[in-house]
UniProtKB/TrEMBL annotation:
It comes from Streptomyces actuosus. Pfam families: CMD. This is Carboxymuconolactone decarboxylase family protein. It comes from the Bacteria. The lineage of its organism: Bacteria, Bacillati, Actinomycetota, Actinomycetes, Kitasatosporales. Residues 23-96 form the Carboxymuconolactone decarboxylase-like domain. InterPro entries: AhpD-like, AhpD_core, CMD-like.
Amino acid sequence: MDARLNLMDNAFAGRLLKHFTSAGKVIADSALPQATQNLVLLRASQINGCGFCTDMHSKDAVAAGEDAVRLALVAAWREATVFTEAERAALELTEEATRIADAAGGVPDDVWENAAKYHDEDQLVALVGLIATINAFNRLNVTVRQPAGWYQPGMFA
């Protein structure tokens, strides 16, 4: 499969992605645990059908020491016993915020309250920012049909 646009070689895309990446760097450096960030990035990418981001974030998570079983179970996190309650709350918020158009009222209060039980205000800001940012990246990559499979961990660091 070929991409509709080459985002890696387009100067305008480079300027745009620089700002997206800067927001991601602020979030990556936040107090939100790295393992949680990796799970959120992967789950949103799975929901959105973004092969490029699913490839990238699963490989980056492995490189960061994430367990292969946990990564394999992200799509079935509700039935899996390998996630902490805080991670489960973050995954639930990720699903609701990613599928925001599917719910007339947006993210339900109980989902938000559950996430707030495990994450302080700064972590919640980071979590919401992470969900928004990965959804934007997913939409870019899905729209241009960015091929998956060639990413190497850390190549955009």
